[in-house]
Amino acid sequence: MNHYAGSGNIIFLDKVFKSRHDPVKALSPPMAGRPVYIQITRDTRAIWISKRALRDYLEDKDIRVRPVMNGLHTYFYAQEAKITLGAGTVYARAQEWCLEVTVPQDNEVLQQIVSAWGEATGEASHASDRTG
Fold first, then answer.
1. 132 falls within a domain
2. How many Å apart are CA 94 and CA 84, to the nearest integer?
3. CA of 84: how far to CAs of 21, 39, 106, in Å?
4. 21, 35, 41, 88: least buried by Cβ within 10 Å?
């Protein structure tokens, strides 16, 4: 995650896109000209990671992909979902398979990442309620 955050391929949103009548706000957009590989939504406490980008990164570093994916499923309860990263913003692209990690309240490290751009506004819904 640090690699793509440092490369500017990350977007922080206030909430998950549901419809064009319920706009989302980009709290921190990606760097200009960079595609979105990681999306973090503050109010819904979720992190989405592009499976393709993660796989490409791991293969580039000669790291076996399957054990990493299994670890994400086992320890972070990551679920696969087809979404549009950056949906509801000008940074949206095509739908792709992503890993969705819902951040539990008691995970201090992931909680710091989710709340990096402020605390949730209280209108949070579960991350799986997305339509993007």
1. no
2. 6
3. 17, 10, 28
4. 21
Counted domains in the chain: 1
CB-CB neighbours of 84 under 10 Å = 21
126 domain residue, yes or no = no
* 47-102: pLDDT as tens digits: 999 999 999 999 999 999 999 999 999 999 999 999 999 999 999 989 999 999 99
The amino acid at 2 = N
Number of residues written out for the chain: 132
Instruction: Return the beta strands (E) in the chain as ranges.
Output: 10-13, 26-28, 38-41, 46-50, 79-83, 96-102
Query: How far apart are the C-alpha atoms of 54 and 83, rounded to whole Å?
Result: 15
